[in-house]
Amino acid sequence: MTHEFAIAAPELPAPSLTPNEVVPYLIGATVGEIERELVLQTLARCNGNRTRAARVLGVSVRTLRNKIRQYSADGIDVPAHGE
């Protein structure tokens, strides 16, 4: 299940959707699915830059790399550096 929603963070442009518009897209998804989509979309918006994406997400680079490693092991495409 893939959900598209905006990411609000100081380093990124303002989202085009309000929380009231985003939440209906999230209903029915698991927390893990939402987290994965948020991580992947943040990585894409940061052009694959893991350090910047970790800062935007508020997690350590190590935590982000562990998540990326798990997603890759699960066969999920992860944005590469510079994409």
How would you describe what is shown here?
- The protein has 83 residues and is mainly alpha-helical.
- The chain is built from four helices and no strands.
- It has a domain at 19-73: Arc Repressor Mutant, subunit A (Orthogonal Bundle), CATH 1.10.10.
- Helix content is 53%, strand content 0%.
Beta-strand content estimate = under 5%
SSE order, as H and E?
A: HHHH
Count the beta strands. 0
Approximate shape: globular
Could you report the average pLDDT, rounded to the nearest whole number?
82
Could you give the distance between the termini? Answer: 23 Å
Helix content range: 40-55%
CATH superfamily of the domain at 19-73: Homeodomain-like
Largest sheet: none
- Helix tally equals 4
Radius of gyration: 13 Å
Low-confidence stretches: none
CATH top level assignment of the domain at 19-73: Mainly Alpha
- Sheet/helix structural class: mainly alpha
CATH architecture of the domain at 19-73: Orthogonal Bundle
CATH-derived topology of the domain at 19-73: Arc Repressor Mutant, subunit A
